[in-house]
Amino acid sequence: xxxxxxxxxxxxxSDSEEVIQFTNKIIGSTTDPIEKAVKIYYAVRDGFQYNxxxxxxxxxxxxxxxxxxRNYGYCVEKACLLAACARVAGIPxxxxxxxVRNHIATEKLEEVLKTNVLVFHGFTELFLEGKWVKATPAFxxxxxxxxxxxxxxxxxxxxxxxxxYNEEGSQFMEYLHDYGSFDDVPYELFIxxxxxxxxxxxxxxxxxx
Length: 209
Description:
Radius of gyration: 16 Å
Order of helices and strands: HHEHEHEHEEHEHH
């Protein structure tokens, strides 16, 4: 049943030597699946700064292994890397995508997107102890502190998704649409949704394909 979620894919390229080495360095001699998952989660969450501005949406650039060539990425890239590392560690993984409204989006991001709706927000789902558990490694700890939002912790047993309210009680994230779960990035759907909601970014060539 979960065999496909253990296999290498185009974007979740868990057969990449770079991804394999990165994963093995993180988990070391750890054998417990939950401990492995938690270690990988934090390595991806805090090892790569969240950056939704300098995007290269070409298939090659979106592969999990490509993120290892720099210290920043956006939600889909970080979800891909988490999923790929999980597969290396023997943990079935898949990708989840949603449309969310960010009520405390930074002014810069809202100015770029011309909306506070984030299309195709990506996260990872890991199969642990007989169930799928959501893990969202997008926002690194330092960014969360800047936004006055608690960083998303992950224990391998409960879903870790963006909270609805920030530390001051203001609404933070509102989930608007669930695109579903996939064994790899549904690239054509992903790009079509971005073009549909942010056409100006492609017309101005701020996002490259």
